[in-house]
Specification:
Strand order of the largest sheet of chain A: 1-3-2
Order of helices and strands of chain A: HEHHEEHHHHHH
Distance between the termini of chain A: 63 Å
Largest sheet of chain A: 3 strands, antiparallel
Number of helices of chain A: 9
Structural class of chain A: mainly alpha
Radius of gyration of chain A: 19 Å
Number of strands of chain A: 3
Oligomer: homodimer
Shape of chain A: globular
Helix content of chain A: over 70%
DNA sequence: GCGACGCGATTTGCATACAAAATACACCTG
DNA sequence: CAGGTGTATTTTGTATGCAAATCGCGTCGC
């Protein structure tokens, strides 16, 4: 007997090498394994990954469009440094995208989706109380993904995801103070409630403000470094 | 004597081939030389451009991140079709970005920049009265560029530019009715004035509404096709 | 001793070559 | 004759090779 649940004949993942490489490099950059400003040595990394230069270069170009690396003609690629100026640029853009996400999500989310976000939120709260930073961030991202799914706008999701990478990178550097963390949690609770109430303008405003506060925190953290 | 105006020792253009190719392909796609849905034949186009496949593929990947082409593993690239669904996705995102652009521009533009935009606007009006569509569109784009420069946010400009390509492509298809054109011109006049008054919220609202009207027009045009 | 120049080593950009996958089509089987 | 299967051809993905540009460093001139 067929068991449709298990072993569903879903097309198996045959990701091109360039994408796997891009994923690996992205992670290295976001998590700081490749520090800001660091030059990217094609040959060395190709050897390390055991691939040839062609797909590697394709991956680098991908990251360049995401703004994670800067390529200079005939001078190679380097991880873009995280500057306050850059963050001041990215945050407002991200802010309006998040606001739109909230607006759309509040309008379009199914009840099931809202419930799922509430569950994720509660779990994140648990992680906060346990002071489990890694799990907290993980759930934070899952909630944002869930919001984007609920907003039903692929373009919006992809654009926001790309910009989000540049912010996440900063977060790995400037780490959360206890006070900021508490505030962030409160803000999350507030917009989860706004979503449940399907209050689109409120959710939009809260998300935008949430991001503004994040920027303020990062700004403070960078100022004293 | 030096003449700093002429022959300024600006670093001469050494654009990588991949970028020139991307530009060429972009134009072909936006202007419809490569129709929506059309499959992209690597070999044929490489021969036509007289380049090898490596830089060509890099260009294709670039366009893929811009959403102009879709690449399927082992099955090549194809120009993304323009669907109403896609436009309904892109427009709201573009809308909030334009609104933000307006907000920032109203706050940050120098008087000279505002004056420049006024000049461009007047010229565009002239083109409208002369019913010179091509020049009108050209100036329209220049005004948007000027706004982005005035907003002083490179990230915002680049994001908006990339999304804008997908909309411009639609414009080449669904062409402007006389009524819509008149309305668009009126809207342009309104937000030029808002900029001159440095009324940020108003400018933001006008730009967003302008885009909404554009979408409505495109929607109507596509519905009857 | 300090700076400019030049040459070699390295690195990047593009082209080509090879391997793997997909498509097209003829052939075989029922 | 219809359907499926196997093979040839085309197309894509990856690797390698070659030319041009850049960088590092030693040497020469002042």
């Amino acid at each position: 007997m067929m068991r449709p649940d298990l072993l569903a004949p879903r097309p198996i993942d045959r990701k091109p090498l360039r994408e796997s490489l891009a994923d690996a490099l992205r992670q290295m950059i976001v998590e700081g394994a490749l520090g800001p400003g660091e030059k990217i040595n094609e040959r060395a990394l190709c050897l390390q990954f055991g691939v040839s230069r062609t797909p590697f270069r394709e991956a680098i170009n991908l990251l360049a469009t995401e703004g994670l690396v800067a390529v200079t003609p005939h001078r190679g690629a380097a991880v873009t440094p995280i500057t306050l100026d850059e963050l001041e640029e990215v945050f407002p853009v991200m802010g309006v995208l998040e606001a739109l996400t909230g607006e759309l999500a509040a309008t379009r989310a199914t009840d099931a989706e809202i419930a799922e976000i509430r569950v994720l939120h509660e779990e994140m709260m648990r992680c906060y109380r346990a002071r489990d930073r890694a799990a907290y961030f993980q759930l934070n991202e899952e909630i944002h993904d869930a919001l984007h799914r609920a907003a039903r706008n692929e373009t919006l999701a992809r654009t926001a995801l790309s910009l989000g990478l540049r912010l996440r990178r900063a977060r790995y550097q400037a780490n959360l103070t206890e006070a900021r963390w508490a505030a962030a949690v409160a803000e999350h609770e507030a917009f989860t409630e706004a979503l449940e109430a399907r209050d689109a303008p409120l959710l939009a405003r809260l998300l935008r403000e949430h991001l503004e506060h994040k920027l303020a925190a990062v700004r403070a953290a960078m100022a004293l470094s």
